[in-house]
Write a structure and sequence with these properties.
The chain has a four-stranded parallel sheet, with no helix packed on it. A two-stranded parallel ribbon has the order 1-2. The mean pLDDT is 88. It is built from six helices and six strands. With 154 residues, it is α/β, with parallel strands linked by helices. The longest helix has 19 residues, at 135-153.
Length: 154
């Protein structure tokens, strides 16, 4: 989330955030960001980027209440886990035109099905859970794989 805040600031965007614990004033100043409640985030935002782990407190944390609070047809980018957003609420928000679009690097069923209902929307972009895949990560993964094989053969 902090990387996204830096990029957004570089484009002159106003950066709002929500998380369970508000950042201290020093970090808010460093990232030029303002804490707001979750529903307010949806009401004020043009773009919403989701960066939280999936656990009992975050599963389904975004539902109809938050999506219906959206007033600016935001574009949501979810690079966390699909179940952070309630699936039926997201489909309903797309059906009713509450969202400008959705970018998903995650799917409710992995790997993504050919009959996934999100595939039918022109304003939904889906990738096969590879957004973190970079040359650096790939090289690191390959080194770890080779090391593990060498250790196993040992």
């Amino acid at each position: 989330g902090r990387y996204v805040a830096n990029w957004a600031n570089a484009f002159g965007m106003k950066v709002l955030y929500y998380q369970r614990n508000q950042l201290n004033e020093t970090l808010e100043a460093e990232f030029n960001t303002t804490y707001v409640p979750l529903n307010e985030l949806f009401a004020q935002s043009d773009f919403i980027s989701i960066h939280v782990p999936l656990n009992e407190s975050t599963k389904g944390m975004i539902g109809a209440e938050q999506l219906n609070a959206a007033t600016k047809l935001p574009i949501i980018v979810n690079i966390a886990r699909a179940d952070i957003i309630q699936r039926d609420a997201l489909l309903a928000a797309l059906d009713t035109g509450k969202l400008g679009g959705v970018g998903m690097d995650v799917h409710y069923k992995e790997p993504g099905d050919l009959d996934d209902p999100f595939r039918s929307y022109k304003n939904v972009v889906m990738s096969p859970h590879i957004a973190i895949g970079t040359r650096v990560n790939g090289a690191h993964d390959m080194e770890a794989l080779i090391s593990n094989i060498a250790e196993a053969l040992g």
